Amino acid sequence: MNSDRFAAGVPGIKSGLAVVLTLALAIARQPAGIAAAEGGSDKEPQFVDLSLLVAPEFPCTWPAAGFPPFHMNPYLRIGPLSPYNSDILAIDGNTGTQLDVPPHSVPHPDSKLPNAGPYGRMYTDKVPAWQFCGEACVVDCRDLVESAAPGASALVTRDRIAAWEREHRPLSTGDVVLLRSGYTDRFYRPLPEGRRFAADPVAGRTPAWPDPDPDCMEYLASRKVMALATDSASMGPLPDLAEPTHLAGLKYGMIWTESATGLDKLPATGAFYCMLSPKHADGAYSEGRAIAIVGDPLARRLIESARKKQVVDLSVVLSTDLPVTWPGPGAGNHRQPYLKVPLFFAPNLGTFHVTHMLDAHAGTHLVPPAYALPPPGFENGRYAPEVQAWLAEYEQKYGPRGTSSVTTEQVPLQQTCGPARVIDVKHRIGTTDTKTWPNSPEITVADIEQYEKQLGPLKPGDIVIFKSGYTDAHFKPLPQGLAFMSDPLNGKREGWPAPGPDAIIYLAGRGIRCVATDGPTLGGAEPKRAIMAYWALATKGMVAVEFLTNVDRLPKEAYFIFAPVKIRGCHGGPGRAIALY
Questions:
Q1: What does the pLDDT look like over 288-300, one tens digit per residue?
Q2: Which listed residue, of 134, 301, 362, 480, carries a Cα 20 to 30 Å from 291's Cα?
Q3: Residue 111: exposed, middle, or buried by beta-carbon count in 10 A (0-12, 13-18, 19+)?
């Protein structure tokens, strides 16, 4: 790529894009300890989705040459070869609503390149969890849209930020400054109309998006602001300030969200903001999901936890040398491995821009109902004979297996966020007979009842997390990491603790709508019991968050937050899980 064209059109390594989507409103029960601030209102919190929809017909990827378009391959479908649906995602970090971290513009300190510094090591897997969230401080920039010449951006200056401070309060660490212009709301449309979003401004045909100039970034850094967001296509003003603006903020260790949307749903202050993205090893940017929670006392307590840096990252790192993808038993039964694909060399960083290919269930991810349930009208005779026998047994005991078309983007945010109820199941490890392998120790209804006897009944809105410590103990680089999934699936060792359908149905009766685990899957290593657990989960309208880590670090009272990348029609969904306490 011509370096001058690259510098003019792409901020350092990138930029952004994506869709207007749903506003999820919901009731979230207040957790003890994270809720009930004195003087707070009784208003039910609203969960607000601030992320664009990722789909091929939208302008969700950066238009400069060299950046591949988003692609989803529905390579695994319920039928004679599998009882599950899954997808291969070919997704660049500059897709949809996205996260920028310092190595986007700051070279590694050992590179000896201009602008190199210590924050050149702060990749997406190294950003501290507290920095992803804080109090949303919404700065109105709507007057700047389409006020510049074609191919140019109107500039957000320090004066606008200072004026906001005079009206509201001084900014400080723990604040997330959100620049609201309404740009994505107006221009993120299906192609070809969607060319107005990014391609036409980059080509100089229409005015570009409003964005901060470098001096504005310097001012925000002086206020100790460590996170920003914009509803522009990029945090980089065109035609020639994209990289200077990026560097001006990222050199201080800032991170930010690009291509947010729906910022008009937030008050000027007081909302809790969070940006969640897959945890790519050495990632300089990443596709992500931006959300907000509006309404005290929940929002206020989460903001206070973020300011105190009381945030735990519960997600595993995605890396090519780690066992992040289902290997299957034997040969030829594995799913798409996680791949890091070099695109082109960036001389200013001394490294390559990369994209990723991965299965939709790689690493920490969502399991929506359509993962294991076929769509309405599915003929059960399409299953393999063995699975047909399992289904007959399941339905005889538990009733009809349901159907579903609910994929990742349709799962409400509030379903995967709530008070963390951590059930310790470590006592189940080592309880299987070697003659039964491949098998997993079963988490039973009795385990859940014992927890409730000690710590109180489960309630609707709770997120139940099964804690075995399995991922912490066995998630290691290959070949040592074969002990994590491959060896259990091949009967060489015991599998990870996993609930059977009875436990899932019991939880559903308690009003639980999301179950999480620090094992690689909720289903376990034995295929018959695994599919029965997933059938029960999905038939009850529940979802799962799989592949957590660091659950031991959660105190008794914590609030769990997970959100997957908002990909239309996806049967999984890589994302990031955190908890605040």
A1: 999 999 999 999 9
A2: 362
A3: middle
